[in-house]
Every structure is written in structure tokens, then in C-alpha cells.
Amino acid sequence: MKKTIKAAFFFFTLMCFFGNAVTMFCEDSEQNLFDRYTHFLFYGDSNLNFGSKISLPFGSFLLAENLNEMNFGCEFNTFKIEKTFPITMKCGNLSSGGIISKMKNPLPSSSVSPFSSGISEPCCATSSLPSFTNFSNPVSSFFQLGFENKNLFVKSARVNCFYSPDKEVIVFSSLIKTDFLNDLLKLSASTACGISSYNENNDSSWFSDEMRYHSGKHASSMLQLSAQIPNLLFGFQLSVFENQFGVLDIAYRADVKTNIKKLNLFATAFYNPNQKLLTLSDKKIDKCFILKNGIQYKFMLKNKIPLFVKTGLSSHLDLKLLKEEHQLKIGAGVQITSFLFSAGLNILCDTNLNTKNSSSPSMNLKSTSVSTQASFYINDAITGLSFSIDFNPSKNFDSLTIKYKALIKASYSKFSKTYGNACYSWQTKDGTFISKKLSLSLNTKHSYKKSELQLKLSADFEL
Of 247, 263, 297, which residue is a domain's last? Predict the structure, then answer.
């Protein structure tokens, strides 16, 4: 590990010297890029996580460690000197995202938050340097070549590659964006293909519905398309995964979203006609059809104190095509905000649909939760109250679990940015206290010239 970090630091140093030499020939050299973009960050917290980060015009280098583990990450980019064809190179304990996350799990989000749409738009592979507190990512590398020119037919394009040797994953992806009729019609397309490993199936039961296979590698690919006109967005996603026996399995997804004045509507449909669809992360998805939709409405109440109101309703229907038990989740909520306070109410219902009797399907309420919260703004302090109620009528309607929380946030920024939080939470079940907890935290940021110091202190007390 230490040899890898030394090699990465040596690579980062060479890239910085290369960038410094390039500034001698670029137009922006007179503005002294190093004086404007050089920054040093030092971090520490009460969990004994420590780290530092050096940011320069052509990249950054990060090093973090605790008592048992160590993270590092370095990045080189040419955004400051070459904006038409920027290059990005990264290595270290990187975290992946973008289309890689969708290849790992192509399903729509099962969350029924009434204030989010969850619409999938084309994107390419992304990666970010590690944080100072997360030590779970293996060493990986990332390379990207971009293109930006608003005056051409192709406005933006990216081609990149993400490689993780420990997880045996390599993904190539691309993204292209263009528009017509002075931005009245915007088109985007992204593609990705990758190779990853899967584990052996050791299930030798006579009643298993899955054939036995050994560990190996398989190919994955994805195509994303979108068309957008004012107040209307269409999206399509095609996922192709090679299964353990060399057969290509295909899954489909479609999205639509529209805005009508203060009203927002969206719908997502996902169809997997394959049994045990094997994704990039070795996740297996059953044969299913998922339909998710929602509606949101915003308006303002003109009083002495203007109030901004937002309401929402969403649902998530998961039909297991090889089973008789299905799931329907419904969420509803309202939010009210002003410059003095904010408040909200959310209701979530989780139900089971049984289609064993096709002539008269039954619906059973699995669980229900009701949560509300309110926050008040007083100068540099925020006080908040919240509580939630969870009950399961299928087991015992009289058995309720209630959670309460009282929160105070305060900030002080005369000499440095300092934030303090104090949270007291308690939980009752059938009128009896089952947990009490006090959480305290203090975050401070102090800047001096090109350096910044971040300190975080936190403690939890079980009462």
C-alpha cells in the first residue's frame, strides 16, 4: 500500500511540473494560476480520522488515515488551461458513480418520497476522490477525455474508463449532448460496457430454482437516451447483461416528466423479463415489472409573511411476475417554508398485494409510518422538533412505536465557521421507553491565507 501511495505521489508531482510548464505557453499564465487555485486542507475528528489535501490548478492529492486503515487519492486535470479538450486522470481509493451505479442496480429507486422524481437521465461513468472518513473503497483508476464547444452541433462529449483491479471491474463509457432550434430540443445519449466477476453458486439443494455454476466473469452494457423540450422530458434505458451461461439478458426502462405551470408529473416503468438478471455488481434481479409515478404541486400564500407550500404524492408498484406476492408503496407529504420557519408532514403506507386468487386479488396493509418535523430560525441558530409513528396493523394494531427528536443547531462565524449540534432523541413502544440518546457535535473551519483547518468533534450518550 505504501509503495502504491509513493508511486501515486510521484505521478502527481510529475503532472504538476508538467502543468507548471504548460502555463508558460498559455494565455492564462499572466494571471498566475497557482496563486489563485492553490489550497491546503487539514482534517481531524474525534473518531481519530486524520487527513490532508493539496489542491493545485492541475489537480489535487489527498491522504487520510485512522488507526487501522489508510486512503489516498490523486487527480490531474487540464480544465484551467484546456477547456475544449479537457483531460482528467485519477487514481487511489476512488468511489464510482454515474452510469456505473445504474449498471450495478438498474432498478428504479423504491423510495416514495413525495418530493423527488427519481427520473433517470443519460450520464457517463464518474469517480471522486475518497473522503476522510470512508475507508471501504479499493484502489482503482480513472481516465477521461472531454469535449466542450457551444458553437458546434455536438455541444458536449465525454469518453472515459474506470478500472478496479481488486473488484475485477473495468467499465468504458461515453456521453454526448446536442440541441436543435436554439435549445428548444435537447438530445442526450450515453453508452457503457464493462466486464466484472461473479461468485460461485454453492446452492446444491434439490429444490433450488437456480442452476449451479462456478465463479467467472461476464459482460455488461447499457444504453441511455433522452429527448427534452420545454416542460417535457422523455428517457429510455436499455440494459444488457451476460448471464452465467453466456446468454444475453435484456431489461428495459422508460421515463417521462412534465411541468405544467406549478404542477409537476413524472412516471417510470421498468421491465425485466429474465429470471435472476445478473448485474455488474453480482446482484440478481427477479423477473418483474415496476411502475413508479408521482405528482407535485407548488404555490405561495401571500400573507404578511409569505409562505411557500409544496405538496406531493407518489407510488411504487413492484409486480413479481413469478410470484403471487407483490408490493405497493404510497407516500404523501406537505412542506411549508418561510424565512422564519419550515414544517413538514409525511405519510408512508406499505402494502402487500396477493394475486393467488386471480378473480379477487387481496390487499393487506403491511406497515404505516407518519412523521412530522418543524424548524425555527433565530439569528444564527436553528431549533427543530420531529416525531414519527410506526405501526404494523397485520401483527397488532395496538402496538405502536413512536420516535421523538429535539434538535438545536447554532453557528458562529466571526473569526471562523463553527457549527454546533445538540440532539436528544427517545423512542417508546406501547407507552414504554425503549431508548434514549443524546448526540453532540461541533464542527469548525478556520482559514488562513491558502490553508484551511477542519475539526469535527462528536459524542453519543445512551441514557
Answer: 297
